[in-house]
Design a protein that fits this description.
The complex is a heterodimer. By secondary structure, chain A is mostly helical. In chain A, 79% of the residues lie in helices and 0% in strands. The mean pLDDT of chain A is 89. In chain B, the strands form three sheets. In chain B, strands 7-8-9-3-10-11 form a six-stranded mixed beta sheet, with helices on both faces. Classes of the chains: A mainly alpha, B alpha/beta.
Chain lengths: 280, 267
């Protein structure tokens, strides 16, 4: 971290003075890790039409938090991760076995998770307000240890992308064709949804439940407007996510307001720009 | 190149490569989809599968591809050929064939950021396609597309291809590596007349060049006799099989499609 602090201290901002404002420097680093993470995952969320699914996962993460809090976990986040992974697995199995359309199955899961979360967190007449911070998120509260964890997750997702992006893409394009070429479609989809579950749950505290799905949808949605192949698609998605992340954090610092929401708004502007410049 | 003796129209299956289906039955969720389907498919032969919608054509393909469970036997001779990795990941000593599969054209959105090169490399190489693609993969993809006269399609987005062009890309993919059997699910639907001629010419070229069996489903009966060596009329079971003229003039063919089209339609 000291290396990072030394690096940031070189920047010409009022918060970049040495020995102060560590929360801001931590937050900047966290944003630089979280946004490429979401930029990468976003490409496949959009390509395989899973934006509704990732939204449902966000809701289940909140329910996991509520369960963790009830069980008296010191860190309810881990309970939430376990619950979200379980949710993703169960969803994949049900979707595969069921003849219902995928968005219907997601609707069933999403509403169940939300209802369970609200019920558990208000059990015994308790107030829901203590979960408000989860809904909005607070990037300035991130600690160096958590940034380290996010870096590990970013590395894991890059690893997943190196090893199985091709199979994932083909599975999304045409499952039967992918299968005929020896790809285990079910496992590809399952591993990917587990990755989303873990990332969404762990970053929810800082980004905020209400806007987290926009980070999974907007970067790639904007990139699709302009990209003609997979290289451009990833480049535009990552670029948009990181730029919006840094700009959003700065805006939040100077003007107040939630950083997560500001990042999302910048992504929306990025989408509008690529839409206007879209390929014909 | 594989050397498998071409035994079309020669003395039976004894000395030629041959896909044999014996007593194949498939049930899905309690419904019988295929019953006691048996036939042989020789190399160098083009066989057409016809039948009404819901006759089990796609299920039959899925059985050969190893994507659905079935009763009965699917064997490929000569046994003991080179070890082959099957569609379901199993390694076989040549008792089951390597099958190339051209699915019904998948739908790409016009805006899909997937170029033909991306698609091809993703399916044939480990190199992650979101990184710059090295020249050797590009050359290989171009060579494969060359087999179907589609080199110029390499940098086109998949969503911008015409039905015939998409069909050619999928065909090039199914031919890498060159399979024993090539399965095409309704390759003629969504392709215009010119594309249809091109495709049929190409299939004819491929079977002589690589000596592979081609097995396709179609609803286009008019062209059957121009390209098919054998026609199999399927409606849960094999109702009739043989030369195109024979099947197309059979009472079974008439019954199947007359009933289906009935009510004063095409009599």
């Amino acid at each position: 971290m000291s290396f990072w602090y030394a690096l940031v201290d070189l920047l010409p901002f009022e918060w970049a003075v040495p020995g102060e404002m560590f929360f801001m420097k931590n937050a900047l680093l966290a944003v630089m890790v979280i946004t490429p993470l979401f930029g990468l995952l976003s490409t496949m969320v959009v390509h395989s039409r899973m934006s509704f699914f990732s939204d449902a996962l966000g809701h289940s993460a909140f329910t996991g938090m509520a369960i963790g809090a009830i069980c008296g976990f010191h860190e309810p986040t881990w309970a939430a991760v376990i619950f979200a992974v379980f949710f993703a697995l169960l969803f994949n199995v049900v979707r595969r076995r069921s003849t219902l359309a995928s968005d219907t199955v997601i609707g069933v899961f999403s509403s169940t998770a939300v209802a369970l979360g609200i019920f558990l967190s208000t059990l015994g007449g308790r107030s829901f307000t203590r979960f408000n911070s989860l809904l909005i998120g607070d990037i300035l509260s991130v600690e160096p240890a958590k940034v380290g964890l996010l870096v590990l997750i970013l590395l894991a997702v890059v690893g997943l992308w190196l090893v199985s992006f091709n199979q994932l893409m083909l599975s999304a394009v045409h499952p039967a064709l992918a299968d005929s070429r020896g790809i285990r479609v079910f496992w590809q989809e399952t591993v990917f949804s587990i990755a989303i579950a873990v990332v969404v749950t762990l970053s929810m505290t800082w980004v905020g439940l209400l806007v987290i799905n926009s980070l999974l949808v907007l970067p790639a949605a904007a990139a699709r407007n302009a990209a003609r192949n997979m290289r451009q698609y990833h480049l535009f998605s990552l670029l948009g996510a990181v730029l919006a992340g840094v700009a959003g954090l700065m805006t939040s610092y100077y003007w107040g307001g939630s950083a997560g929401a500001a990042i999302t708004l910048y992504l929306a502007v990025w989408f509008a720009l690529t839409f206007l410049l879209r390929k014909k | 190149m594989r050397k498998i003796k071409h035994g079309k129209l020669s003395a039976g299956c004894a000395d030629s490569c041959c896909l044999k289906l014996e007593g194949l039955s498939v049930r899905l969720e309690g419904d019988s989809i295929l019953e006691d389907v048996s036939f042989h498919l020789h190399c160098g032969e083009i066989a057409a599968l016809i039948g009404p919608n819901g006759a089990g054509k796609s299920t039959l393909f899925r059985s050969i591809l190893g994507q659905t469970s079935y009763k009965g036997k699917i064997t490929f001779s000569p046994a003991g050929g080179p070890a082959i990795r099957l569609a379901d990941g199993e390694i076989t000593g040549g008792t089951r064939p390597l099958v190339g599969y051209v699915p019904q054209a998948p739908s790409f959105d016009r805006g899909d950021p997937v170029s033909v090169l991306d698609f091809f490399t993703a399916a044939t190489a480990r190199w992650p396609v979101w990184l710059p693609i090295p020249a050797k993969y590009r050359e290989r993809a171009a060579a494969c597309l060359g087999r179907v006269h589609g080199e110029d399609l390499l940098d086109r987005p998949m969503g911008g291809l015409s039905g015939g062009q998409l069909q050619r890309v999928l065909l090039a993919l199914a031919l890498e590596p060159v399979p024993h059997i090539l399965i095409l699910d309704e390759p003629l639907s969504g392709v215009d007349i010119e594309g249809e001629h091109q495709l049929l010419d190409m299939l004819d070229e491929l079977r002589t060049q690589y000596d592979l069996s081609i097995f396709l489903s179609t609803h286009d009966f008019a062209t059957l006799s121009q390209f098919a060596d054998k026609v199999i009329l399927l409606n849960r079971r094999v109702l009739k099989s043989g030369a195109p003229e024979e099947v197309l003039s059979s009472p079974e063919f008439y019954d199947t499609f007359h009933l289906r089209m009935g009510k004063g339609g095409a009599q």
